[in-house]
Amino acid sequence: MSEKGLAGLKVISFGTAIAGNVTAMTLAELGADVIKVEAPGRPDPLRVRIYPDLPRVVEPSGAETNIMFAGYSRSVRDVALDMKDPGDLDRFGRLLAVADVLVDNFATGVLDRWGLDAGRLRHLNPALVHVSVSGYGRTGPRAHHLAYGSNINAFLGLSRVWAPHGTQFDYTAVGHALIAVFAGLAHRDRTGGGVAVDLAQTEAGGALMAPLYLDYLVNGGAGWPGPNEVPGSPLSGVFACRGHDEWLAVELEDDEDWRLACALLGEPALAERWGEPAAVAGLRAAFASWCATRTPHQAMFAAQRAGLAAGAVHDSEDLYLDAQHRSRGFVVEVDHPDLGPLEYPAPIHRFGRTDVRVRRPSPRVGEHTAEVLRDWLGPHVAP
Amino acid sequence: MIGPGPLDGVRVLDLGGEMGGYGTRLLGELGADVIKIEPPAGDRQRRRPPLRAGIEGPEASLVFAYYQAGKRGITLDAGRDEAVPLLTELAAGADAVVLAPSKRTPVAGLDRAARALSWASTTAVVVCLTPYGLDGPLRDLRATHFTSYAMGGLMKRMGTPDGEPVAVPYQQMHDQLAMQAAVAVLAGLRDRPVAGGQFVELSLHELLGAQDDQLDRYAASFEIAGRTPARQAPPTGVWQCLDGEVELLVHNPPHWRGVVRLLGSPPELADPALDDRGERLARGTEIAALVGPRLLAMRVDEVVERGQKLGIPCAAVNSPAGFVEDPQPRARGYWRRAAHPVLGTIRTPGDPFRSAPALLTHRRRAPLLGEHNTVVYCGELGHEPAELAAWREDGLV
Question: Of A298, A363, A372, B221, which one has the greatest count of Cβ atoms within 10 A?
C-alpha cells in the first residue's frame, strides 16, 4: 500500500451531473487533491438553475451557480481548460502526467475527439487509474447512447415495477466508481501499472437490482413484487396516519413479528394464523384503523416499543428537523461566496482517524487554474 | 487459473449480514480472502426469495447465492461472549472487519460509545454499518430496508400523487451502504501507513439523507418535494408507442430540436420560442397533443435508434425481462453463468464494471452453510475436531 495515504492523491475529474460530481467530491472529502476541469465556455450543466423558486445567481466568471451544484461539487478545486485549444490541451497533458486518477462521464467519443484515446492516455501516464462512467458502456450496440438517471431506471425495468425516478443510479455509479478508483490504485501499487475502467451505469444498476432478474434468469419466471411488498415478509406496507399525506411504513420479518403485531393491535385471534391470506387482510385492516388515529411518529414509537420494525414516511422538512441528524452533526453549514451560508449534509464516512470533512465551498469556473498549475507542475510553469 | 487480484493477501471478516453483503462480495472479487461469519442457523438472506424453483432449505435462495459469492463461510454465534476468543483468533490475521450489529444479530465486544471492537486487531479497519447510527435519539430503532427507506425521505417523493408512497424494491439502499463500506475498507487500507487501524461508522439514514439534495433544498427555500411529478416540460416523460413505451428526457435546446426532427419537423413545432423549457412548460398541453399521436405511430426501437442519433437521451421502458434480453448487456457478456452444487448452473448479473487489466474476478460461489468451519477452525486456527464438535453441540458454531 502507498506510503502517502489519501492526502497525497491527485485526481483530475471531468465529472459532470450527479454521478461525476459526487464521485469527485467524495474523493476530495476523503482527503484527495481533486481538480474539476471545466471548459470556460461550456461550464457544468448542473450549474444551470432548475428550481424556479430560487434566484438565478451568476458568479464573477460569468457562469451560473446554484445550490444543487454547490451541494454536489464541494471540496474540489476548479481548473478552466478549453480542450480544443492546443495550449490548454498541453497543460492538461502535463497535469495528467502527475495525476494518479482520471474520472470522466463524457458521452462515448469525446475524449477520442481531443486525441485522448486509451493509447494516448497510457502514453501520457502509464500508471494512470482512469475510471470512465457512461450509461451503457464504451462497447456494444448502445455504446453511443446518451442516458440520464431516469432513462436507466426505465431501461432496467424499474419504472414499470416501481416509479419513474433515476438519481439512485447516479449514486450507484458513484459507489462503484469509488471502489474502482481505490481498487485501481491497489492494483497500481502492486504492479506499477495503470488501469482503465469501463463503468456502465446500466450494468452497475443491474448488479444492485439483481433480485429483480434472478427469478427470470434462473427459473424462467417473470414475477416481481407489487408496490411495497417485501419478498419473504408476511406483511409489509404503508398505512395512512392522522393528517394529510402522513404514513407509517411497517415490515414484519417473521412469525415472531406477526405475533407481536397481533398483540399490539389487539387481534389475538389472528396470532396463530400467520400466512393465511384472510389473516393478512385482517391484520392490514387492523393496522389501517390503528394508524388512522395516530400521527406517524406516535405510530412509529408505539410499534417500535412493541418490538416491530416501523418508520414514519418522512419528507424533506422532517429531515431538516430530524433530531437524529442534528444530534450527530450531520447538517453542516458551508459559506459560499456567491450563495451565502447554507446548510448541507455532511460527508457520510465517519472515520476515527482519517480526516474526512468539507474542504471548501463549490468552486467558480477556473477559480484555481493558476494555483493548481503552480502546485502540481511547479512555480516555473507559466499558467 | 485465476491470478491474484489487487487485494491479494488482504483478509476481511464479514459480519455484515444481509446489509453489508454486496460490499464484501466486491472485496472478495477484488482478491481479498473474505470470511463470512453467519449465525449457526444461517443468515436471514438464506430464506430470501426468489428461491431456486423446486429447492428448499438453507441453500435455496438465489439472492444469497448472488450476494455472498466470492466468500468463504463459517458459522458462529457472534453475539455470545463465548464467541470472543474465537473472534479474536480470526481477527488476528484480518486487515478489515465489516459488521452490521442489530438487536437480533448483536456482535460481542462492540463498544458503541467508544466506537471500538474489543477483539479486532489494532491495525484493522473496522467498518460498522447501522440503520441510524451508533448514537443519537433514534440509535435503537429497529429497521429493515423498507422502513429505512421511508425514514430517509426519498419514499415520500415516489409514486403517483394520489396514491401511496412506494419504496424502491429489494435492497438497493443496503447495497449502496455496503458499497460505501467497501470504499471505507479500501480508503482505510490505503491510509493505513499514515492513520493506522481505525473504526469507521456508516449510517444508512445519513446515506439516504445525503441524496437528491433533500436537506439543502429545504434549507435554501423551505420547499417540500412531494409525489407531484416534477414540473416537466413536454416532451420530457414517458410516451406510448406502437409496441410499448419510451422515455424521453429533453433538457436543452439541442435535445428539443432533435425531437422536432424525429417527428418529421412539423410546422406547428417550428416556433423557435419552443427551444425554451419554460415556454414548453407553459404550452405543455399543445405540445403533448402534437407529440403524442406522432410517437404512437412509431415503434419503440425506431424512436430510440433514431432519437439517439439525433442526440436525444431516450430509452425503452422495459420490463425486467426486457433488460435481460436487450442486445447491449448481451453483446458485452454481462450475464454470468456459475455452477453451484445445490442450485446447479445459475445465471446472474455479472461484474458491475470492467477494466483492462481486470480488477474484478469471479473467484468462488457463495458458501454453503458452515462449509468452511473445519478448514478455518481446525486447519487454519489449529483447533481439534473435538473442540469444533463441542462448539456445535453447544450451539456456538
Answer: A363
